[in-house]
Here is the input.
Amino acid sequence: MKTFANIFIAICMGLLLTSCEDVIELDVPESRPQLVVEGSITNTEGRQRIKLSWSTPYFEESTPPPVVNAQVRLIDNVNRNELLQEEVTGTFFTDISGKIGNSYSITITLEDGRIYRSDPETLFPVTQIDHIKVVREDPEEELDEEGKAGYKVLITAFVPPEERNFYRWKIYVNDTLENKPDDLAFARDDFVNEQVIDVEIFSDYMRQGDSVRVEQMSITESYYDFLSVLFQQTVFTGGLFDPPPAPIDGNIRNLADEQDYALGYFHASAVVQARTKIED
Amino acid sequence: MLSQEKVSINGYVRDSQNGESLIQATLTVVEARTGTYTNAYGFYSLTLMPGEYTLIVSYLGYERETVKLSLDSTQTLDFELQSKAISTETVVIQAEQEDENVSHVQMSTVKLGIQEIRRMPQLLGEVDIIRSIQLLPGVTTVGEGASGFNVRGGNVDQNLILLDEAPVYNSSHLFGFFSVFNSDAIKDVKLFKGGIPAEYGGRLSSVLDIRQKEGNNKKFSGTGGIGLISSRLLFEGPLGSEKASFMVAGRRSYMDLFLKLSSDEEIRGNTIYFYDLNAKVNYRIGEKDQIFASAYLGNDVFRFRNDFKMRWGNQTGTLRWNHLFSEKVFSNFTLNYSNYEYELGVPEDPENIDPFSWTSSILNVSAKGDWGWYISPKVTLKYGGSMLYYKFQPGEVEFFGDTTNFSDFTINPEYALESGIYVSVEQFLGNRLNLQYGLRFSHFVNMGAGNVYVYNTENPESRTQIIDTLAYDSFEKIRSFHGWEPRIALRYTLNENTSLKASYNRTKQYIHLVSNTTAATPIDVWKPSGAHVNPAMVDQFAVGIFRNFRQNTYESSIEVFYKEFQDLLDFKDGAELLFNQTVETELLSGNGRAYGAELMVRKSKGKTTGWLGYTLSRSERKVEEINNGEYYPSNYDKLHDISLVLGQKLNEKWEVSTNFAFMSGRAVTYPNARYLYEGISPPNFDNRNGARTPAYHRLDLAVNWVISPVEKAFKQSLSFGVYNVYGRRNPYSIYFRQNADNPQQNEAVQLSIFAAPIPYVTWNFKF
Here is the structure.
């Protein structure tokens, strides 16, 4: 009977093996380069950064070229309108820090005269991180050859009751942002009934002594939606029940042409942070 | 001269071996050059002047019966026809009248005999009605594992699937690889792709009418089989006398039983199985009445270790009463119950932080009455009405853990009542023209108890912000809809072998399937039309030419259709449909059109049987928010679709058969650029369905071997075959990702399932 069972399992496995994944050569359409915006305004002291680049053909393996000769202005709802400094080609800075309750947007003027503007983003307050802890994902797991293992970051925070807030967390390991698609961590608190939330973020492989810094940010619903789609479209791929491909709509468009929009997002966030070290 | 009163004959036509009623058997009155056919319950009625007549009763695959009648008064006359196929299981019985293709007014309709389906090569030997239907012209599927089907450019939720008149909301087992219908328990399958008669309503694109066996009323017998995936067993027989009979059937997959025997603990911890139960009883009370009760229960259970669990299934029940008000008036009253339910979640386990269970269901109770009044051989009047009560339960979430952050919640259930009344006339005008015209009036009310959210659509930062909640009491109207649905079909006979047909129908659909995954998942959320969602509507026009050759040995048809859809549901890019209490904010509404031509040549007699089908078609959508509001191809748009189904009987014992399918690539979305956002390199998809997958093609082979001699009481046979003979790697999906080692490098990946030849063997028996 046992032999028969094993044969049967072999058949089932064989069946599973009849499915296969092949990396294939494919002709994909090519659009003209589109403006890409990555940037934010936060309430922290220090520099705010807006980075402009161009999209490239899908299979091209290179760093996207920066936008040259553009101008970026930061506008808020209390009459600020400031031209940002371009210090590196395509990257613009300001020392202004955002104020909670204000709303911000940017306008971008390209060399060819096209003007893009982001939808206004309100800078919402953010709750404090009450507690941070980093623990092994699986204590039984053996360290790899570099002495690393899987960890998860646990954060406890108080959430204001009866509100609908949106959050994002960024994890820096030894001051380097974890930025693979599945490192995107964001949440909404509508379903949470208690005042305390525990957030569990799986992190990359780390080793003892690594420092971990977590930024907890308030975000708008619109940025939350952007992140959800970004996450969906980069992480949930290849399975049987995945959502269909969809554009990741940002909040920046050409004022003169409804159809022309920029990729990426300009967001406003309040930020708090917490640090810890991996000790065990 | 005394004017003579007309008289009627009526009765049932049944199989002489098992008493099953024969649907659409033909009765021809030679002298009067007229005739009729039996209805869905095997009943006929003919009205004639008194006189001497020769009546021929025929049904394909059965010996025809000729009787001399001296008709002077109204009488009841039942017929029992002898099956030509009593000797072996494998002879083709096609449940169709010989020249039905040409002589019926109905177009865009296909009947598949269950024997014909059983003979075709099958995936892993599971005889699958839905997969077989996909080989018909005008019927396509999105992909290998999608058990749903698309008819003439319509979405999978636009098919009304009826099992003994009860709607079935999810027709798949095992994530879409198999369908829920146990072929042993099924007697008749009929698909309406167009020209949908007025008695059917509620879905836009098709009606798949499946009837279960009534059960042998002559003797106790059984059927069963053992296959790779599942085993099945059916018993049927008389209950006391010939007046009553029963049928009960079960099927269960058993992969999981073997998983438990594995030495690997990880494999032992998994569970996956499905089962079905079918049952039916019927009782003939005298000459005028017959009652039926039938039920279906099916479930799928899936558990991946302690991490994830899932269960889903349908339950349906039907109570039916056929009554003859007079020799000319046949009636049918039906009570139906149907429930589709699924549950998914994380099991309770010390290691799981937030164990939960999510349940969702659509429940449906309905009553209907249908009357058929056989006024004369030239005019038949049908009328009736129905009422369906729905309860939609989109989601109830329960959390179990002690440490959980979350509280239980329920997404507002919705309630609705759908009603329809119809009248339909089939009429012969002269010898050449046959008309069927009808009108259906449908009404739908979405009602309380419930809450309706009012959204702040003016706020660009948060269009989903709720600014008001309107509360409604039980049965209080939230919003109602109604509509007239005309249905017209005509046939014009050019000569004995050729006819022209044309039809127009309008259908409305008040409930919508909310699902945006590529494959068929059990996670179906049905959404009724209501405060934020409108009913969908389609107008379909079709014309065709039908011709039979060589004494009806070959049937052929060419049909052309055009469909115009209104208010179809679509989804916003990246819509979140699960765990969403405000799912209406993720929905879009648009229009669509589909058009095409279908060619079919079918041979139903002789040693070689089968069909060749070809469809050339387009299916397009138009949604303001997608692709700049221009027409774009729908997910299941495939320009060419060719299928060849062939069976060859070699001798009394051996038969071979083959399927070949070719479909041009379906519409998909490919990225047109990459960019960098915070170190992530996402694809940019800005042209929905602007590209095509590579073409799909597949060849299957099967051999059927009747082991036991014809005379034996215990008959057994073996079916074996190969699915995807030449191991074509058909694209199931194509997706895009960052290369794991080099995030700067993007790659395209094709996922293929069943990408190798898959053999099977099934042992069947009958006693």
Notes: The helical segments of chain B are 100-103, 114-119, 129-133, 255-259, 265-268. Chain B touches chain A through 81 residues (CB under 8 Å). Residues 86-96 of chain B have pLDDT under 50 and may be disordered.
